[in-house]
TrEMBL record:
One of its GO terms (biological process) is proteolysis. Belongs to the peptidase C40 family. The keyword Hydrolase applies. The lineage of its organism: Bacteria, Bacillati, Actinomycetota, Actinomycetes, Actinomycetales. Residues 1-101 form the NlpC/P60 domain. This is NlpC/P60 domain-containing protein.
Amino acid sequence: AGQSAFDCSGLTSWTYLRHGFALPRTAQQQYSFIAARGHINHNLNTLRPGDLVFFSPSGSPNNIVHVGIALGNGKMIHAARPGVGVVIGNIYAGFIGGGRP
């Protein structure tokens, strides 16, 4: 698969699997998986590079619609939307938490 073939959770799943760790498939499932282990951090300023970053437009942990990978300095890599591909951008409004398994 090329970089334009990923959706957001496909990118995070693929990246973590390349480092030996299998994640659930959807952004919501990935959030729930990490939250169940007590590893969700709600403070943007204490994220570490490699942490998954989750987004919910409603602010609800039951409505996770996007996930990316923190790079540091308020940046993330993510599959923005179909047709755009994998990009580096700012962690934006709707951030609800981040962490790693």
